[in-house]
Amino acid sequence: MEAIDKFIENWKIEIKKYYTDVYNQWINDPVENYKEDIITSNTDLAFFKSSFTIKAEYYNKKHGKGTMQLVRHCFCNIDKMIESDAKNKKAKLIKQVEKKAGKIVDATGLRFGVDCGINGTIIGELKTVHVETIYAGGYNIQCLHYRVLVK
């Protein structure tokens, strides 16, 4: 499991960089940049509320609603949240792989996707499986989210 431990440790570093970049984009992107996207209003407050909403919608579409909720509301607890997510991600990945491939023999074929998703190949005692992170959120799903597939 050393390869998975190392991978998860590297994932924690990469996901923190990703969230930090998104947070900095959010903070440094003035609300005024979105004024062309709203109907002209009579008051500055109405303009701010409208443009802020449009900015939020843009970032939700670009990075996913869950990412933006984390970035806008919980960045101060980011390390604690990443640690918890890493623990859960590791346990779930091991469970999914061992169910399909048996005990893990080699996990050095794992890599990060563009959005820090887990992708690659893991060799198990019974067979080799491919790990792929996809966007999920089809029929009757309220929020776009990531799903890790093991095939």
List the helices and strands and how they pair.
Elements: H1 2-28, H2 44-63, H3 65-74, H4 78-101, E1 104-112, E2 118-124, E3 128-136, E4 145-150
Helix pairs in contact: 1-3, 1-4, 2-3
Helix percent reads: 40-55%
Low-confidence stretches: 37-48
Q: Summarize model confidence as the mean pLDDT.
A: 76
Shape: elongated
SSE-based structural type: alpha+beta
- Cα(first) to Cα(last) distance is 19 Å
Q: Looking across the biggest beta sheet, what order are the strands in?
A: 1-2-3-4
Number of strands: 4
Largest sheet: 4 strands, antiparallel
Strand content: 15-25%
Radius of gyration: 19 Å
- Into how many domains do the coordinates divide? 1
Oligomer: single chain
Order of helices and strands: HHHHEEEE
The number of helical segments is 4
Describe it for me?
There is one protein chain. A hairpin with a 3-residue loop joins strand 2 and strand 3. Mean pLDDT is 76; it is low at 37-48. This protein has helices at 2-28, 44-63, 65-74, 78-101; strands spanning 104-112, 118-124, 128-136, 145-150. The relative contact order is 0.14. It is elongated. A 4-stranded antiparallel β-sheet has the order 1-2-3-4. It contains 4 helices and 4 strands, in the order ααααββββ. The protein has 151 residues and is α+β, with helices and mostly antiparallel strands. It has one domain. The protein is 54% helix and 21% strand.
